[in-house]
């Protein structure tokens, strides 16, 4: 994987906000804006493992106002806290995929124990009045653990993934303990009004009081747009576009994750070729899908399914001089991806559930204003309520997706421009920087309850 900052992509979310630390993702960009102006401690997992819990190294690096402190997980913590419980229990639960949950008491205990390690390490680094912002489902109980260690300052928590309603969430053993962990925070941010309603319902079910607010995350559209313009003119991207041989381009970009509706997307594309044969030989679907969480069984099975589907569709519709689906399971540098978004006629974003989905926003930011592409977007992406001008689809309905792709591929420039400019307006209004500012302003406005 390329390590240069503008290519830096870690195909996963990591506990402790170490989300491709200082890479190009929306979270880091959003936080970056907020933290540049104040003395800030960035604390989280290093992404590395160490054999010996007692001897694991702590990495520390000061860059400008920001002190980056990260530490290694042990193999046991990585397996049980990170893979098994965070990604094998909490992730499917929060994405409404209860049949994929693999719960054991031992993994649950390891999750809480790892959060205690985070709390122990963090508390020694804090100043008395520090404001703390915790990120994501790996660290649900951390707020409570910090309070137990005497932390009195403001604590905020932001959940990047969806939160299910009580009827689904209650499947989790010790849900009350998890919610009590979050309720120790002064403010809990979620992506959408639906998540807000669901989480509030769960707190009410246990008689817990917590402030929950929907604060949808954004991207940095100005810099992404600039990157897309430069990238589209680069030799690397021009070379790729040349190989398309004049065919129209549909693009999909996602971590290889069952929440992203990837097999469904392939079936939608196949339905386009079946129901609208005029597009055969005229369109190429490029799906960029870096493998993630290969240590979790459901992810390995998904990859097999996807590999099979791509082969089947290419075999059924491809010709000696045309490959319908181009598919990679490794990441592509952001400096190339941005240009490919810009050159694409359709952005194809089909999650079954997604906290937000930054790809939808990046696709819009990257478009050429005079000849913009069309966004086909799942109703179940957190981005959908902000982007009603997209062609909204249900990923279970292959024929419906085929209709939307056909509409997108044949839409005239006036209609494309009208939809794009409305969505670009929204992406420009609610940016990564305004997201972190709104959250931190709301947190500051609350008088600490602990
Ligand atoms: C979680 C929530 C929420 C993807 N492939 C490559 C690549 N990417 C970049 C995209 C985008 C990011 O990764 C993916 O962001 P998403 O939002 O789509 O999805 P998750 O990773 O699941 O993120 C999600 C997000 O947190 C933020 O709150 O929106 O709902 O699940 O930036 O461009 N980047 C590069 N090469 C790739 O191959 N360079």
TrEMBL record:
It holds the Pfam family Glyco_transf_20. GO terms for molecular function: alpha,alpha-trehalose-phosphate synthase (UDP-forming) activity. GO terms for biological process: trehalose biosynthetic process. CDD domains: GT20_TPS. InterPro entries: Glyco_trans_20. It comes from the Bacteria. Belongs to the glycosyltransferase 20 family. This is Alpha,alpha-trehalose-phosphate synthase (UDP-forming). It comes from Gluconobacter roseus NBRC 3990. The lineage of its organism: Bacteria, Pseudomonadati, Pseudomonadota, Alphaproteobacteria, Acetobacterales.
């Amino acid at each position: 994987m390329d390590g240069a900052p503008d290519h830096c992509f870690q195909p996963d979310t990591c506990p402790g906000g170490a989300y491709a630390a200082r890479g190009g993702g929306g979270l880091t960009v959003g936080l970056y804006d907020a933290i540049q102006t104040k003395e800030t401690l960035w604390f989280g997992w290093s992404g590395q493992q160490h054999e010996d819990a007692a001897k694991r190294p702590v990495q520390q690096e000061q860059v400008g106002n920001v002190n980056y402190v990260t530490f290694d997980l042990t193999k046991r913590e990585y397996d049980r806290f990170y893979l098994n419980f965070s990604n094998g229990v909490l992730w499917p639960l929060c994405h409404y995929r209860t049949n994929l949950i693999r719960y054991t008491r031992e993994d649950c205990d390891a999750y809480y124990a790892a959060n205690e390690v985070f709390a122990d390490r963090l508390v020694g680094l804090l100043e008395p009045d520090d404001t703390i912002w915790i990120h994501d489902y790996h660290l649900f109980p951390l707020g409570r653990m910090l309070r137990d260690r005497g932390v009195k300052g403001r604590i905020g928590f932001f959940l990047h993934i969806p939160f299910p309603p009580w009827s689904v969430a209650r499947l989790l053993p010790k849900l009350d303990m998890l919610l009590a962990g979050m309720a120790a925070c002064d403010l809990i941010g979620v992506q959408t009004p639906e998540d807000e309603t669901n989480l509030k319902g769960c707190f009410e079910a246990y008689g817990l009081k917590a402030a929950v607010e929907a604060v949808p995350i954004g991207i940095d559209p100005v810099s992404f747009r600039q990157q897309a313009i430069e990238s589209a003119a680069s030799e690397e991207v021009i070379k790729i576009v040349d190989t398309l041989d004049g065919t129209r381009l549909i693009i999909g970009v996602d971590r290889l994750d069952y929440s992203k509706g990837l097999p469904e997307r392939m079936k939608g594309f196949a339905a386009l070729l079946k129901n609208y044969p005029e597009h055969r030989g005229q369109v190429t679907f490029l799906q960029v899908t870096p493998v993630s969480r290969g240590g979790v069984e459901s992810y390995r099975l998904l990859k097999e399914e996807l590999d099979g589907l791509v082969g089947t569709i290419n075999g059924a519709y491809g010709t000696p001089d045309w490959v319908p689906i181009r598919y990679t399971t490794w990441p592509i540098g952001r400096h190339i991806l941005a240009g490919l978004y810009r050159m694409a006629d359709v952005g194809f974003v089909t999650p079954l559930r997604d906290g937000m989905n930054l790809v939808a926003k990046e696709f819009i930011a990257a478009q050429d204003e005079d000849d913009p592409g069309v966004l086909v977007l799942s109703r179940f992406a957190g981005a959908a309520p902000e982007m009603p001008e997209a062609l909204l689809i249900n990923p279970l309905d292959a024929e419906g997706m085929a209709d939307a792709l056909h509409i997108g591929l044949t839409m005239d420039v006036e209609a494309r421009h009208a939809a794009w400019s409305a969505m670009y307006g929204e992406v420009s209004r609610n940016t990564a920087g305004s997201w972190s500012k709104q959250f931190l302003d709301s947190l500051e406005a609350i008088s600490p309850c602990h």
